[in-house]
Write a structure and sequence with these properties.
Fructose-1,6-Bisphosphatase, Chain A, domain 1; 7-stranded mixed sheet; 6 helices; Inositol_monophosphatase-like; Inositol_monophosphatase_CS; magnesium; 3'(2'),5'-bisphosphate nucleotidase CysQ
């Protein structure tokens, strides 16, 4: 029986993890990509392995990866791989264990399969568009918190500045993890009530995690409450909010200027 997309992504993610761990805590070579931050020889090695595994298995799929020059050919494909070989590269360089591999397949703009794998922790988050979100095979359930009171949010400290919140800064507990994909997966797991970003987010950082959070029961949109679409000519989302549905609505209310 042919391997389905999710099984293929899981297999590829585990291979990526084995490669990444060969470099982790071993002073890999590092380059600076300017505004896009650092990249290591591990990022390139993982990307090369993913090209071999995924493109060989699905030659008709398009390709969008942080570590591969973009090719407009993907825009003509019904299906496309969207991936970040190592999300949280700064954490990887620092020897922290919260880096991840974020791998997804999107069909006609909609993510249909995705995995976020943390090899140093052996945590495999996975989901399909018509199935449950899982962690190492066990089902996930996002938070059902009723609003901002007592909510624990994953977001950088800068996002809590008053200028971002015309409706008033919400009183929430703030936490942080380096990998955007992992933040989304943690929302799906219910360990955090939500996550938000006001920066434009690359599709490769959010495709897999957004599906995992949504299939676990979280509401996931851009910063304005609009649905996410993938494989865009400029592959970025205008910010990101993933949270328990009631919390998501409350955050959007605070982001909207009060009526005159």
């Amino acid at each position: 029986m042919p391997e389905d997309d999710l099984a293929l992504l899981i297999r590829a993610a585990r291979e990526a993890g084995r490669i990444a761990l060969r470099y982790w805590k071993r002073n890999p070579r590092v380059w600076d990509k300017g505004d896009e931050g650092p990249v290591t020889e591990a990022d390139h090695a993982v990307n090369d392995a993913l090209i071999r595994t995924l493109r060989a298995a699905r030659p008709g799929y398009g390709w969008l990866s942080e570590e591969t020059p973009d090719d407009a050919d993907r825009l003509s494909r019904e299906a496309v791989f969207i991936l970040d070989p190592i999300d949280g590269t700064r954490a990887f360089i620092a020897g922290e264990d919260s880096f991840s591999h974020s791998l997804a397949v999107a069909h006609r703009g909609r993510v249909t399969a995705g995995v976020v794998f943390l090899p140093a922790l052996d945590r495999m988050f996975a989901a399909t568009a018509d199935g449950a979100a899982t962690l190492n095979g066990a089902g996930l359930q996002a938070s059902a918190i009723g609003g901002t009171e007592g909510a624990n949010i994953l977001t950088p400290a800068a996002n809590m500045k008053p200028e971002f919140w015309p409706g008033g800064v919400p009183e929430v507990k703030r936490s942080f993890r380096a990998s955007v994909a992992y933040r989304l997966a943690l929302v799906g797991q219910g360990r955090f009530d939500g996550m938000l970003s006001f920066r434009q987010g690359w599709e490769w950082d959010i495709a897999a995690g957004s599906l995992i959070a949504a299939r676990a029961g979280a509401a996931v949109t851009d910063r304005h409450g609009k649905a996410l679409r993938f494989n865009a000519p400029v592959p970025k989302a205008d910010g990101l909010i993933a949270a328990a549905p009631a919390l998501h609505r409350a955050l959007l209310d605070r982001l909207t200027p009060p009526a005159a």
